[in-house]
Each structure stands twice: as structure tokens, then as C-alpha cells.
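User: Predict the full complex structure for these chains.
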Amino acid sequence: MTVLKDLFLHDRKFRIGFIIIILILIIAFLSFISPYEPDERSMPRKNLEPSWEHWLGTNATGQDIFWILTFAVRNSLFVALVSALISRCIAMVNGLFSGYIGGKTDRVLSTLTDSFIVVPRLPLLILLSFIFKDNITLLFMGLLLGFLDWAWPSKRYRSQILSLKEREFTFTAIFSGMKTPKVIYKEHFPFLIPYMMADIISGFLWAIGMEITLSALGLTNLNISTIGTMIYWANYYQSMLQGRWNWLGPPIIASILTVLSLYLLSDSIGAFLDPRTKLKRIMGGGIIRCQ
Amino acid sequence: MMNFFKRYILPRFIQWVIVIFVGVTVVFFVPRLSPMDPVQTTLRRLSSVGTTNPRAVEDLREVLADLYGLEGSLLEQYISYWNRIIHFDLGPSLAMFPTPVMKVIKTSLPWTVGLMITSIVIGWLLGIILGTLIGYFSNKKWLQVLDKIIISIYPIPYYIMALLLVLLFAYFIPIFPLIGGAGIGMNPSFSWSFIMSVVKHGFLPAVSLILINMGFSFITQKALTSTLVSSDFVTYAESAAIPRRIILFQYILRNSLLPHVTDLSLSLGSVFSGALITEFVFSYPGLGQVLYTAIMQGDFNLMMGITIFSVAGIATATLIIDLLYPLLDPRIRYK
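Assistant: Here is the predicted structure of the two-chain assembly.
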């Protein structure tokens, strides 16, 4: 907790990222007090320009864009969160077994992981979401994305564990008679858990991007509003040709702000964890330097 | 030499075979989960033209199933499928019957490969060069601005980025054409006008791909350079007044090359799935576009054909890089 406070005070990247993500979260939580239901159509009039009453105008089906955006952000974040958690859980188990047990287990798991990396994910995802199209709920979408994104992180965790096993403090711990589970729990987890935190964010970014891509191709349940489906409908009603930027702009800006803030956060945490910058920090008297 | 073969080449070759086997198997089974029945689709298309008696329809169904390779149990289909792959026969496309899948792939492959490989390699090189410069001259103002820009572009989802480019350069400032790979009605030839048209049509998609591919190699290279700059041998070289050019190219670049080679092989592998979004957004006539239509029409053979190409492409790229590694990395010696 103090670490987060320090990061917030001293690292500009962290501060910017943190403020933007709080804004995004506020937008997402506003959906709970929305005056309109997400599936209500034609409550306000159609195709209104932005005004005091409707901050971002209304779209072609008569939905207030600002309030729809709050639902969209909430739903997209939910999908990405489910996906990131699922994929990192699988990856963690896979990486732990591969890294600590080694030998045959490692070889089998690594081959499996490598084969999965080779299978092109996007066509597979398109096919799967095409099959389930109208039955896709948000949870299902998250699970689907999660089950396709464990291969890379598994590889990363494995190599992280392998490098931890070779560090001097591990040898010191073993030679002073510490048991393996205790070494893992006491010595390695403090390194692995923050690493995982930064990695979960990168999974989150991937999932947001994928959700947007699939929805914009028209392959998800288009009745649930997410950032991606907002873009789909804006394109569907020719917002570019009609010059209606209030349809296409908000979801694009929301998505860019979300990924950018999360990326800044993960970058800043990553720099904090990096042993090289850690050394600089200790020598520089507690001031956090990034880059 | 024998030992080198046994310990280095053979395991990698076996891995290659296993990876392709698993990949092809997944590719075989997943489309069969799809609710689209290509035989039904064709029959419906035929029966909408005129009335036919049920008997003839039943016969036709059998003939079609046989032609499409959908005859018999899953296991039988699976075996005959491998049999065909070994003979490089991917069967006919189901939606564009009876054009063979190989022919469809052959017409669209040059577009995709040309666009993707050029832009991936350019993006990769640009990322490395800029990363080295920013890592080395970290106090120049304009380089810092460039650094901020690249870092903000990097996490943006590819689709959003492509869409932004289309908005900017095909609507607001209409300098680039919106669809196609070359002017309409032009025949592929080596004439000046055709090549110019290809370049003009491919420019925006290429820029979007370069921007996306640049990010990763840029970030890696910047981190590598900043560690190398403070290492002893660079400090020594600097105090020995060795020209900066030589320090940059022979000391820093040479020493940070290895991770990038792996990275390049992996991004070259992603050519096929990456192409899908690019070609969809920019209406570019390549393999990704074909794959998208194939999925939409339930064209099993075409889907499998393209994905098999992609799986084999990635696996082979990784194999080649692995085999080249001992040449590039003096530390790996398997003798």
C-alpha cells in the first residue's frame, strides 16, 4: 500500500495512469444510476446533436450516447477482467509445474504450450464466436478469450521461475536448510506476485483489444453494448459518411484512454520491480526513477 | 558434427513435427463444431432454383458429402484428411466449388505476404534503430518527444488504430484510396503505373502495421541499450575515444541483436491472423479477407487450408530461427 502511495507521489507515469483509470471507473459506475435501461430504444429522440440534456447526443436507435457509453465501458472492463484472470490462473499453474518440477513434466507442458502458441488465435476466435454468436453472454466472452490467452504468459512465468531458481538467494536458502515449499512461498512469491500483477494488466489490454475487434467485425452478441459493439453500430449506420462524430468518437476515445492508462500503470509497476531500477532507487535515496 | 545433429537439430525437428501435428488436428476439429453444414447450404442454394424430387436430393447429398470429404465417421474423415494433406491436396473450396483451395490461396497469398512482410520488417528495423538512438542519446529533447509518442501508440488495439488511420487519411484528408489492392481493372504486371498503384493502395495498411510492429522492438531495444550504455565495455570504448558510430553499431547493436531475432520470427509467424483485421478494415484483397468470408460461409476446406498454411508458416519460421541461432550467438556451441 505504501508502495502504491510512493509510486503515486513520485512517478508521473503512475500518477497519470491512475487518474485516468479512476475516471474510467467512475464512468463505468455511473451506469448504475443511468436514467435509461441499456436495452431501451427511442427513449430520447433519434439522431440528436450533443446538447445540455444529452451530453454526447443520441444515436440512430434513439439511445443517449453518454449513458450507453457508461454501460459499454462497464461491460468491456468486465469481459477483459474475466479473461485476464482466467488466462493468468491457467498460466500460473502451468508455469509453476513446468518451472519447479522440470524434467518430463516440463517437456510435455512446454510442447503443449508451444503448439498452442502456433495455432492462430484470431481465426479460431472468429470461428468460435461465429458459432455461438447470439448466445454469447459477457461472462462467456470473457471465458472464451481467457482460454485462448494462457500460452504466452505460461512461457513467461516459466522462464521467470527458472531464473529465480538460479539466483543466489535461492541457493542460500536451500543451503541453510529451507524446504522447497517454503523457499517458493517465502522467497519466490514476493517476486512472482507483483510480476503477475503487471502481467494481468497486459492480459487485460489484449482482451479489450480482442473484444473490440470481434464486435467491430460483427461477431459477438450485438445487443449487449460494449465498446466494440458501439463502434459496430456507428459503422453500421454510416457515421463516417454522415459526419456524425459523436457516434464513433466516444467509444474510440474511451478505449484509447483505458488501454493507455492501464499500460502506464503496468509499465510503472514493471519499472518498479526491475532489479536494475531498484538498485538506482536505493542509491538515489528513495526517489523512484523510471526509464 | 553427429553429436551436434543429435543434440541440437534433431530435438528441434521433432518439436516442429509435433507442433504441426497438434495444430493441424485442432484445425480439423474446431470447424466441425460449427453449426454451418456446407452440404445443406449447397443443397438449399440448388433447390431454391427449381423443384427437385426427394430421391434426387438424397443422391445429391451423398455425392456432395463425398466431394467435400465429409463422408463417414469423424475418424475416417480425419485419416483421409491427413492422407490428402501429405499429397498437398487441400480439396475444393466449398463456397466457390469447384475451385481448388490451393488455387484460391495462390491468388491471394502474394498480396498478403507482400504487404505483411514488408511492413513487419520495416517496423522491426525502425523500432530497433529508434530504440537504440533513444537509449543512447537519452537527453535529446526531440527524441524524448518521439519516445512518448511511440509509447502512447504501442498499447492501442490494432483495430482502433487502423480505424483512426482510415478516418484521418481517407475521410478528413482524402489522400489515400479506401479500398482494394490496386486500381480497379488493372492487370498485375511490372509496369510503372501498376506498381505505383499498388504502393498507393498499400500505404495506409502498411503504416498501420509498421506502427504496431515498431512498438515492441522499440521498447525492448530501448531497455537493452540503456543497460548496455552503462556497461563497462562501452564506458571503456568511450574513454578510448572510439567513434560513436562504431560504438553504436558494433558495440551496442551487435550485442542486443539476439532477442530481436526471436521476436522477428514470431511476428512473421503472425502474418496470417494479423492480416485478417488489416484486410478487413482497409478492404485489401488478401488471404485474411478470404479467410473471413470462408468463416462466414462455413467453407471448411478453405478455412482449414489457410489455417494450416499459417500453422506451418509459424512453426517453420521458429524452426529456421532456432537453427540459425548458433550462427548468431557465439555463446551457443553444441559440439
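Chain A touches chain B through 38 residues (CB under 8 Å).
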